[in-house]
Design goal:
84% helix; rod-shaped; mainly alpha; single chain
């Protein structure tokens, strides 16, 4: 009884797996073609052997060992299916990487555009701050003490420095778009150091 049920179970399971493989293949999954062929060879070998046993098929080396031959072809085809699946995964990974790189380029472009637009918006109020500080310094220079005049000068100098940085950001955006050519020149370390010291001096208090 157990042998009968085992054979019946194996037969039904094989049919179900073959049917599922055929269904997946018809839905467009490429490696399933090897899976369907593998189970086709196994089923063919399983059908030929009983047919030979009851005399409907003449005995030969192929009919006597049809199940073993079908199993060998099944293993070979399933190995090909696995190799095809690995190749498919490699192609999917490469496509995913290409898509990720493309998205990064888009994000980088949007970042540069945002930076350029923000820099443009910052220049207008900054110009007003610099203008007001210089105007106060020119108008009330004789009436205010030296410390206040220094502070107003620092406000104007810091504003000009920030304005220069914003201009550098815009120039950098133009450089990336090949709209500007970069000309290198030496940097005056003494001037830069002096500016840093002047800006930092009020913080020491």
């Amino acid at each position: 009884i157990s042998v009968v049920y085992t054979i019946l179970h194996a037969f039904v399971a094989t049919i179900v797996m073959f049917g599922m493989g055929l269904r997946v293949y018809l839905r467009g999954y490429r490696p399933a073609r090897f899976y369907v062929l593998a189970w086709s060879f196994l089923l063919l070998g399983a059908f030929i052997y009983p047919l030979q046993a009851i005399g409907l098929v003449p005995p030969s080396i192929f009919t006597n060992y049809s199940i073993q031959i079908g199993s060998v072809f099944e293993v070979i085809l399933l190995s090909l299916a696995l190799a095809d699946r690995i190749n498919l995964l490699k192609h999917e990974k490469a496509a995913a990487q290409e898509s990720a790189i493309k998205n990064l380029h888009i994000a980088d472009s949007l970042k540069d555009e945002f930076l350029a637009n923000t820099s443009h918006e910052l220049r207008t109020p900054l110009t007003g701050i610099i203008g007001i500080a210089e105007s106060l310094l020119d108008r009330y220079a004789p009436k205010i003490d030296k410390e206040m005049a220094t502070d107003l000068g620092l406000i104007a100098a810091s504003g000009r420095r920030l304005y220069s940085l914003i201009s550098d950001l815009l120039d950098f955006s133009k450089l990336k778009n090949h709209e500007l050519k970069l000309n290198l020149k030496p940097v005056d370390i003494k001037t830069v150091t002096k500016l840093v010291l002047e800006v930092s001096r009020p913080l020491l208090k």
